[in-house]
């Protein structure tokens, strides 16, 4: 349940506003750890496993890539896919599909990353995704009183059988909606395992989760979509572990400040499904997921 | 240990009964306020020659049994003119006394020093009593007099920050305080999340906080008991009081139903910002709502010399509606029925029946095809007979029982998506809690007094319902469900019981100084499930189950108390405490606490410890009066799966906590109050590192620690000026009484930190560019908040 925004609204309403100031605290230093970013899917794009180091939290630089690793993904049918180091970007290990995308729904995959005598391992399973039936737009004022507010909505039905988990990504005019509050996750057709919402049309907050709520230079809300804008929606399948991981990422990264801080949770490390085969070996964090993808796009015309 | 206590207990009882041979007579009755008939709680009856006496109970009743003879007695109460009377006690004497408020009698600038209640003499320790006149004087946020915010000026009481609901006592969590309003438990004592509390100051008579040395008659929470008693209502004349503040307007009416026999009070408050804003805000005209209100009522009837009944009720709600179909609301409703019966001059009984309900409702969805509704409630029915047997001037025996039936309805919820509806409700839970207690307050010689007692509590979780069993996994990660059991109606699913011994002593070193110590053990069967910084109205209370064990708290206290100065106007005390707690609840990272049938798989259990020392100095009378309180404390938890299984400080751990409250009468009409708070920074968790997965900047603490850093310290000064209305007009005394309060909260506009949080800058960073990160410090109220209120009474 994403209630924090409700509380926020509530306080704006009574004209009490907390104040947030940017500060520059000194953080405890820590040794870098290996980070494996391995979200692989069956799209016909180049598939990338990124190997980097963690960096100090307030360091405003690209994470340092780690070269020299051997990266492979093996499936349960005896195939091994080699991810080769990309000469043009340090730390990227790539696999380029030829004709068909990576993997098969239902198959199990094992990732192995060998670097400097360390061997990192992880497992995943490619889940299924529903097709997106349609995308619609509607004129909704969302209580803003603004008649020019156009909201997009995608329509899809979660397949019967509990436990499907998804990451719904939306691109407005080709740009991924990547703000922390724009992360749109689904457990079956709703938010969480406890919701008991299997086999339904995705619930409205998820269907609506493809809208960017941005403001203009004067802090006035702008319509998510205007005539001529396009939206592309993708549903990526997740494992339940990946779903839990991304749920935690959303909690840790979505910190809008203000009164929502009253109901913030203590900062905690998100989970990792990458393990060093040697328990005494170097520390590693990250996530491996192999997902299938469905997608649909639409241009908004008035 | 337990057997020993029981043995001593029985032995001492037998000793008293044996010593009853000599002819003794009993003096008993009620002590009341002469002006309005309100019972005075804790008023004293004292004989100076023998140094013996007693105090009135919460209903204003006293009873003292002495050998036949003549006694010069003093009946007194703080702020009231004492009455001296010689009683010929050759038979049972019933004597009801009415004391006159000295403030009313002498409208002088200097508060006269009457015989004060002295902590150094009283048996109690680790308790704080706030009377409403003091609470009214404390400068309040937005000028709204607030019981719970006032408590935070006392030693040993803290909070996670402004706007947070509830309070923390001696290192306990918010959910470990039992908040009672006329004996009805209040599950959420806040309006507007945590900014105001639900108690209407016009209807409250007495507020007492037990931080330790809790008498055996109280149980159910391990940290503290906040006992709020409502006024009975003026039994002599009609009175209307009210006020217009920044947030609330208030009105109360009280008066006799039958003069001196029956009276009532009705008090209501409502926030009115929505009323004022309605003409300007379109959404308010279209069904949006934003208000909170409460209604407090009480009536009592003196059936006879021996019987008196009270009925009291509270109803309050907070409503936040975005439009007609969307929004949420929450509130408490309580009802208390009490019957005081004097069986004989020495046996006082009170029978209480309580109904209390807390519920919240959420509804979202712009149309009937896509909507979500969620209702949740906790209802309880309480039956509580309590008896006090005033054995003699040295012993006061109290015993009784408590039975509580709970119905938990965590979620009655429906979600509709594209016209298809799904019932996502969770099972109701049915529980029965019961307790028996026995306690004695005994004076041994002139120096020593002891209080000892035992409470036996019992808790039952019974069907119908479905329970789950979970696997053992790596601590700190979600436990998987391994089994599911369906239970029939009435079937016992889990049962717990606990022996809760309570003991305290006082050694009167000199007439003005004493040493006190106590031990108590408390059990708590209900748990507030909350993993956010401040608890919120949707936090779910969960009973103990097959997977959640009752929380247990043990506390030792030791203190020195002394009264000083002319007429003992100064009072100082030093108290140390040490608490150990078991079965404390914490949460896995990423825990899903709402609408989750597998909630128990996300809970962790651990132990806690808290210790501290509280210094308190009070000047009770004079033009300048007030107090200074300083607490040096520490509170920690140790939970497998958090902080690498090491001890960690809780979010409300405050090393230094200094509070100063001062009241000064400038002239006959003007008075000024100020309070100052200095609190050392509370713990928080900072990341060490960052990393990027799929373009998301993830904070990382390489040491996997919890609460590894302290926020900057907090300090604040509030001031308020009070202007009394003229008492005389054209030489005649005015019938009505009014006053203005001008207050300023956070006078020097300090941006006190509530939290420091880390986030990526709010933008969509193109691939190939570093994601900017930042640290922000939040102040909930980073500015001076002025307020005016007008209050009247006629």
Structure description:
- The complex is a heterodimer of chains A (302) and B (794).
- Chain A is mostly beta strands.
- In chain A, 9% of the residues lie in helices and 35% in strands.
- In chain A, the strands form three sheets. Chain A has a nine-stranded mixed sheet, with no helix packed on it. In chain A, strands 12, 13, 14, 15 and 18 form a five-stranded antiparallel sheet that branches.
- In chain A, a hairpin with a 2-residue loop joins β8 (108-115) and β9.
- Chain A starts with a helix and ends with a strand.
- Chain B is built from six helices and 54 strands.
- Chain B starts with a helix and ends with a strand.
- The radius of gyration of chain B is 27 Å and the shape is globular.
- By secondary structure, chain B is mostly beta strands.
- Classes of the chains: A mainly beta (302), B mainly beta (794).
- Chains A and B meet through α1, β1, β2, β3 and β4 of A and β23, β28, β45, β46 and β52 of B.
Summed up:
The complex is a heterodimer of chains A (about 300) and B (about 800). With about 300 residues, chain A is mainly β.
List the helices and strands and how they pair.
The complex is a heterodimer of chains A (302) and B (794).
Chain A: H1 4-13, E1 19-23, E2 34-41, E3 47-53, E4 55-56, E5 70-75, E6 80-85, E7 92-95, E8 108-115, E9 118-125, E10 134-139, E11 150-155, E12 165-172, E13 175-176, E14 184-187, H2 204-207, E15 230-238, H3 240-253, E16 275-276, E17 284-291, E18 293-299
Parallel strand pairs in A: 2-17
Antiparallel strand pairs in A: 2-3, 3-7, 5-6, 5-8, 6-7, 8-9, 9-16, 10-11, 12-13, 12-14, 12-15, 15-18
Chain B: H1 2-18, E1 24-33, E2 44-47, E3 52-55, E4 61-67, E5 69-76, E6 80-81, E7 83-89, E8 93-94, E9 97-101, H2 102-105, E10 127-131, H3 132-137, H4 147-151, E11 157-158, E12 168-169, E13 177-181, E14 184-185, E15 190-191, E16 196-197, E17 204-210, E18 224-230, E19 239-244, E20 248-258, E21 262-271, H5 273-277, H6 282-285, E22 289-302, E23 307-323, E24 326-344, E25 347-367, E26 370-392, E27 395-417, E28 420-423, E29 429-444, E30 448-462, E31 465-470, E32 481-487, E33 492-510, E34 513-524, E35 526-529, E36 540-543, E37 551-564, E38 570-587, E39 603-619, E40 624-639, E41 647-649, E42 656-665, E43 670-679, E44 683-684, E45 689-693, E46 696-700, E47 709-710, E48 714-724, E49 728-729, E50 732-733, E51 737-745, E52 755-760, E53 773-779, E54 785-793
Parallel strand pairs in B: 1-8, 1-9, 13-18
Antiparallel strand pairs in B: 1-4, 2-3, 2-5, 5-7, 6-9, 10-17, 11-12, 13-14, 15-16, 17-18, 19-20, 19-54, 20-21, 21-22, 22-23, 23-24, 24-25, 25-26, 26-27, 27-28, 27-29, 29-30, 30-33, 31-32, 33-34, 34-37, 35-36, 37-38, 38-39, 39-40, 40-41, 40-42, 42-43, 43-48, 44-47, 45-46, 48-51, 49-50, 51-54, 52-53
